[in-house]
Amino acid sequence: MNRSAPEFLYQQVIDFVEKQAKNGALRPGDKLPSLRKLGQQFGISVPTVKQAYVELERQGTISARPQSGYYLNAKHARTLQPMRAKWAQCQPVEVSCRSLIEQVYDAVHVPGTTALGISNPVNAHPPDKTLARLMRTVLTRTAEKAVSYGPVNGDPKLRLTLALRYQELGVDVNHHDMVITNGAQEALSIALQCVANKGDIIAVESPCYFGLIELIESLEMKALEVYTCTEDGVCIDELEKVLNNHPVKACLFATAINNPLGSFMPESGRQRLVKLLESRDIPLIEDDVYSDLYLTENRPVPAQYYSEKGLVMTCSSFSKTAAPGYRVGWLIPGKFEETAKRIKRAQSCSTSMLQQWTLTDYLLSGDYDRHLHVLRKILRYNRERMIDLIAKHFPPETCISMPQGGSVLWVRCRSVVDTSYIFRQAISHGISFAPGQIFSPSGKYQHYMRISFGVKWSDDIDKAIEKLGELVCAYTATNSERVQQ
After folding, report:
1. 160: buried, middle or exposed (CB in 10 Å: 19+, 13-18, 0-12)?
2. Domains in the chain, please, with CATH?
3. Average of pLDDT values for 354-376?
4. What is the pTM assigned to this prediction?
5. Measured between alpha carbons, how far is 463 from 349 in angstroms, rounded to an integer?
């Protein structure tokens, strides 16, 4: 600190932080020194440092996290705002986008590819060593039982452990009613088959996870898109209009944290949603796989909490939080318990007991919650870093979502951009992402893309985003000239 300089001391602290950010000593997502530490380092008072941090927060340079400290934000990123004015009501459609979805999945497994196209947040902090140790203990304890069939609705101890976790959130869940499934995808499939048949209309968010679109396609049902806000999730007013105009059989929504938007539906919204649907006796299937990966202060409460008629069916899994390869999920079926168990028995009989026992021990040991705490911290850091890179290398008109949970960014390019074309270009450079078109049953969002920040960070990530930026800039420049001509 230069005490004879004309600038106030707090302004010199601001200059110091900005200089550290500019030269790369501080990167988006990094934690700033504590008030006390920086005060001691520069020989100034804690209130002086606090004044500087408050001003930096006001400018949007840093953000405070309760009981954690101050963190550097990504700069120059345009937040993706709702596009309500351009939304037109959709009609039910028979889904057909399997080819492009298959290309996205295939690209993930190409050797040497920087995989930004799949949402696998566990990559950022894999608990593989802990799970391997627990599984060895389970094998020793269970011997030949580990390769036997288990109960149709899953291991009782795992169901009880999961039910207790829901009860801690205030959700009255009976573990006898739960069904353990082969991942959340089977849970969603069972739920759909409980309440709908071939040709029925299923309301989905727009945009929504392409796995749900493909599931609806495989069951030969029709998907009807409902406008979804980038901040608050599915628009209840828009949904009400849809229900007035179409014979919707069920709604399939990520009621807390949406994929790909990362929007966070407020509790009042979830309560209103359930009240609206149950007043019309329309089942709600909630995709709840990202709720433990909230990047806000508190975990969202499932919509199941507000159900009075048992018409809400909650689907979740460990795939996004701990072990995607274990394929262990669960279904809270509400009033459809008997039907769900019958479909599970016919569809896959049971779920692997070895993985269930291992995950039960993982939950009871406290290791799962400790892992989640670290994983969420890494995802917050990666989010800021990825936003900063995209803002730096993509065209200035690019808009980026600010997800409140999950592990993906929803990126909007200029309307002249076709991201499915850029996807094929990117694959040739060893980079994958998810083009926006696959997140819409009717093929909307052709100039959008989903990019995952649920990655183990390396220099390859920086290089991949830089190359993607080059491809988008080149395509934008070429096609903008054609439009003008």
Report:
1. middle
2. 9-72 (1.10.10.10), 78-124+372-484 (3.90.1150.10), 128-368 (3.40.640.10)
3. 96
4. 0.85
5. 46
